[in-house]
Amino acid sequence: MAGLAAKANSDRPILGIMMMLAAYFCFSFIDTSAKWLALAGLPALQLSFMRYVGHFVISLALIGVGGFNIDRFRSEKMGLVILRGILLMASTILNFIAIRYIPLTLTSTILFSAPIIICALSWPLLGERVGIWRWAAIMVGFCGILVAIRPFDESFHWAVFLSLAGASSFAMYSILTRKLSGIVAIDTMQFYSGLVGTAALLPFALLEWQNPQNAFDWTVMIALGLFGWVGHQILTKAHNFATATTLTPFAYSFILYLTIWSYLVFDHLPDQWTILGAAIVIAAGLFIWVRENQNAVKVRTPAHVLAEK
Q1: What is the pTM of this model?
Q2: Which secondary-structure segment (H or E) carries 12?
Q3: Is 196 helix (H, G, I), strand (E, B) or coil?
Q4: What stretches of the chain show up as alpha helix (H) in DSSP?
Q5: Least buried of 15, 53, 127, 163, by fewest C-beta within 10 Å?
Q6: Average pLDDT rounded to a whole number, residues 267-294
Q7: Mean pLDDT over residues 86-96, rounded?
Q8: Residue 6 has what pLDDT?
Q9: For residues 173 and 28, what is the distance between their CA atoms, to the nearest angstrom?
Q10: Distance between CA 91 and CA 106 in Å, rounded?
């Protein structure tokens, strides 16, 4: 019966894909808005705080629907849940600092090294076997990052190290999410992601606080948390209508969105090296995705197939 229910929930791939595209549009709005506000002089820690306080308020309201039962805020894996929130917060802070200095197209390319980092860490952290083909793709992906950032070029900026650290933090966050999936409720993880970011960043936001210069900037700043929460919710719901196998390639729409935003808002287009590096990173990520799906099919036994009927 569980298999039939899962199948019923995942037989609308077009809707799932549309939701995936919408989720990454929301995420692209966050990065574009953060760069806009950072260039206007607002501190990265203040922007990071606004990203999480809105997320926290919405999550608190939803998790409290039907009464604030303390059991709904508990988890046997609380340490990992908190660590997951810290890693997500670190990724946001590092990214918000980096985008002030380097183009969105470059930060998005670096961010999409996260699936490659996840694959590299899945063996020591999750005990998942990584074969020679995926190790080759990992190496190629990191070469793509080197092509994009050009460490020995005169245009190289130290902020790429922050972006790389942010991608690594996001990779660790994703690994913990995978580890906690099915053990901790999604709403609970959403709540603690908002809580950790809000509580940790509040003192720094108060110390550095600067008011936006106009009503438009106020609106954009307040919307950071809203779009963060909406993006994560849509992303989660998308998997109710299509499988991860179907949805994963559409995550790369994020790079396309940020390329468009960069041109429309900041009059910037990526150079040929960024484009080439992004193409290599995407190709490596998609190859890893294909190999993981092939390995998943190989381990399916007749018992697994019968259990889903």
Answers
A1: 0.80
A2: none
A3: helix
A4: 2-9, 13-39, 44-63, 78-98, 104-111, 114-126, 132-149, 159-180, 186-208, 215-238, 244-247, 253-266, 272-298, 302-308
A5: 127
A6: 82
A7: 93
A8: 44
A9: 19
A10: 15
